Fold this protein.
Amino acid sequence: MADLNILVVNSKGGCGKTTVATNLATAYANAGLRVGLYDCDPQASARHWAESRSEDLCAIDLHFCPDPKTIESTNTHGYDVCVYDSAPGISTKPVLQSDFEALLKHSDVIVVPMLSSTWDIQAGEHFITQLMTQRVWRARPRPIAVVSNRVNGNLTGQRRLKHFLSCSNVPAVAEFRESPVYADAGDNGQGVMEMKHNRAARKEFKAWRMLMSWIADNANSQIQTRLPAAPLAAPRAGTTRRREKQEQA
């Protein structure tokens, strides 16, 4: 397997899993690491993002895997970092349990994007409870963190989310603003960490570094020692190696 395997997951759709997954992939690629991005969502959002990505940007290998059970550990060899973008609706329900277990087996750390609405918090609480009682997770517990997505000044919602997380003993490690820069990055196949000349994007850099720092501190890997000390902001110009592998179930 890769040195570092990151699962981005939540049972609820629309919480920003693909945004988090693609931005993590670009951040690690811009740090000079070999990155595999696994799109496990039949809607293929990450694949569409990759198709919009310029050849001048850092290489990221996209694998379309709507059936996570087809992913073999040998398929992830050769990468420093693998990021898994799960499908919405994935859960421990019997019909989807095998997909959930397959993704858990490949993960070193788990990142759960969550919005701060009452419905999102209730759904997130139920999902994290499912996750922490799942047999694969219980056999080898992986670190779990929540990232607050599309933060827009809703202080009541943020307080509610922080209260839930304090009760569940799951850390909230980063907050990403509700900003059009994310839509702009997605449309162009970019990550905000690559948009060093965009003022709105630069405001987000600290939050992404905080998430990467938590991942490095909690994953059983040597990635931390291989990341540059300088801010991960600038893309490597002239990198043209990129291939897209589509693996249908």
About this structure: Residues 233-249 have pLDDT under 50 and may be disordered. Strands lie at 4-8, 35-39, 61-64, 81-85, 109-114, 144-151, 172-177, 244-246. Residues 165 and 171 are 6 Å apart (CA to CA).
